[in-house]
Amino acid sequence: MANETMNFGADVSRLLDIVAHALYSNRDVFLRELVSNAADACDRLRYESIRDPSLTSGDTTFKINVFKDTGYRCLHVQDNGIGMSRQEMIDNLGTIAKSGTRAMMEQIKSSQTSDQDRLSLIGQFGVGFYASFMVAHKVEVISRRAGTSETNHWESDGRTGFTIRDATPDEAKKLSSGRGTLIILHVNDDASDFLIDEKLKQVIQIWSDHISVPVYLSDPAKTEIDEKPVNAGSALWMRPKQDITTEQYEEFYRHISHGLDEPVLTSHWRAEGKIEYTALLYIPTLRPWDMYDPGRKTSVRLYVKRVFISDTMDGLMYPWMRFVRGVIDSEDLPLNISREMLQMNPVIAKIRSGVAKRVLSDLNKLSEDDPAAFKTFWGQFGPVLKEGLYDAVEHREALFKIARFFSTHQEDTLTSLSDYVSRMKDGQDAIYYITGENLETLKNSPQIEGFKARGIEVLLMTDTIDDFWLQQIHDFDGKPFKSVTKGSIDLSKFEKQTKADDKKPETEHQDTTPLLASLKDLLKDEVGDVRISSRLTDSPVCLVAAEGDVDMHMERVLKIHQKYDAGSKRILEVNEDHPLIQRLSTLAQNAGTNSPDLHDAAHLLLDQARIIQGEPIPDPANFARRMARFMERGLAA
C-alpha cells in the first residue's frame, strides 16, 4: 500500500508541544508510559489467546525489550503483544480523539494552571505515547497485529503530522516474534543519558518494577535472552502487603491511572469465602476532567487468575464509584467465555457489592484517622459518591456514615448527619435543609433566618444530586428530612437566641390582616397564598413552596434539564415584625387595595423575593418602572 501522509489537527499539534515541554523536568516518565503501554498490549493478547491459541503460536512467553543503538542514537522499546493494524495505528497514534481536548488546552494555557496541574491534566488524557517527544525529535513505530501478515511503519516528528506505509522486509524482521510493536526513538542530544544501560535500568526499576511482564535490556533480534529481567516481573497485587513499599504502591497507581498525582487512599486486600478475589484499589487525589460525562466508564481492571480481561467491564463497579482506580483479580470467574457473557455472571455482582462495602469502610476509617485527607477526597468526589444514596439501597447506611454537608453550625466546616442529629434542639423532630447552587447564597437565604435566630442547624446542600436523593430517602435515624423552603414550619416553640445588646425596644404592632388581604388580592394571579412567616427575622418577605408541591430548587433543576413545568404557584411569606411590613400595614388600613403605592409595593415585594431566590423577574420593564416611581416618591417626601 502506498505511503500516506496525514496532518495533525491544530489542537493535537499544540497539545504535543505542551507535552514535550511541560513534562521536561520529569522526562523519565516517557519510558514508564511506553513500558506501560507495552505491558497492556501483552495483557490484551494473553486474553485473546484464550479463545484463539493460534495468536501466540511459536511464542507464548510475553516480554518487553528495551535496548539502545548508540551508533544511530536510537532507543528501542519492543513488545510481543497484540500489535496494531494499519487503521489502529492511525487511530491510536495519529489522533487524540477526545471530546475535551480543546477544553483541556484552555486549562493548560491558563495562567492559573501550575506545572503540577499540567502534569495531572496530561495524565488524565492518556497521551503517554506522545511523551516520547520529550526526548526524541523523531519516532518510528513498526507493528503487526497478532494473527495477521501485514506489518506497517508509522513515523512522525511530533509537529507537522505523520506518515504511514507498509514496512519493508528488513523492518518486519525486527519483530522477532512475528507480532507486536517496536517503537524507535531518535534521541535528542540533550537526552543522551537515555542511551546508557545503567540509566535505563534505573528508570525501569523506579517506574516499572511492578509491571507483571518481564522487561529486558537486550535486543531480541541479536541476543539470546539468558539474563534476569530488570523488573520484578510479578503482579504487584498478588504480593503480600508487608513486602510492598509505599513507593511501589504509588508507582503502580501511576501505571494504571497514567497520572502523576498521589492516591489519597490505597486499599489492598484478599477476599476469601464463597468467592475469592484480590483487590488493589486507589482513590485519586484529583478527579478526571470527564467525571460527569454520561458516557464515562469505570476504570478498574478485571483480571481472572492473573489474565487481563478488561479495563472497562460494565457492572464490575457501581457508577457512583467510577472514580476508583485499580485491579480486581478473581479466582472464580471462567476464562473461556466472552466479556459480554462475563459481565452477566452473578459473581461479578457479588464482587461489586463486596468491593463497595470495603471501600466505603476504608473511607469511613479515613474520615476518622485523617480528617484533612478525607476533606480533600470529599471535595473532589463527594457529589459522585452521593449518587449512591439515590439508587444503592443496600449501601445507604454506609454512605450516610461518610456523607458530609455544609451547615449553619460552623461556616466552611463539613458535618456528618450523625453529628447534626447529636446537636438537634430539644423538641426538634426534623433534619432541616436547603438546596441551591451557591453556598454563599444559601448562607444568606431569608428562609433560614428564623432557624439561625433560634440556633436550629440547617444543612446547606449545593450538589444537584441532593435534590434527587432527598426525594428517595425520607429520614435518617428516624428523623425526617424537611426543606426550609417548603410547607408551613412552626418555630414558635423555640426561643430566639437574642443577645441583650441586640434587643430592640418593643413597639406597637399594626394589624397585618388588612395587608394580607390586600396582597392576596393584588397578587392572586402570581402566588398561591400570602401568610405570616416564622422563618423570617431580617428580610421582609420570602417565597416558599406549598406542602404538596415540588421544592423550589428541585423545580428549577427539572425545568432546566427536563423541561418540567408544574405551573404551581409559590406562597409569599411576610415578616410582620419588619418595619416595611408595618408601614405597609398602616397603608393598607388607610387606603386599601386602591392605593397606587400599595399596588406597586406588592409587586416589588414579590419581585424582591424572586431575586433573592435566584429566579428571573417575569417583567423587568414593569419592575424598573415601579422602582423608579417608588424612588421618586421617596425623594419627593
Q: Residue share in helices?
A: 25-40%
CATH class of the largest domain: Alpha Beta
> In percent, how much strand structure appears in the residues?
15-25%
What would you give as the CATH superfamily of the largest domain? Histidine kinase-like ATPase, C-terminal domain
> How would you write the strand order of the largest sheet?
1-6-5-4-7-3-2-8
Mean pLDDT: 85
Tell me the Rg in angstroms. Answer: 32 Å
DSSP, total strands: 22
Structural class: alpha+beta
Instruction: Return residue spans where pLDDT drops below 50 for at least 5 consecutive residues.
Output: 97-102, 111-126
Examine the secondary-structure arrangement and name the CATH architecture of the largest domain: 2-Layer Sandwich
Distance between the termini: 91 Å
> How is the main sheet built?
8 strands, mixed
**Total individual domains:** 4
Subcellular location: Cytoplasm
Keywords: ATP-binding, Chaperone, Cytoplasm, Nucleotide-binding, Stress response
Region (A): 1-339
Organism: Micavibrio aeruginosavorus EPB
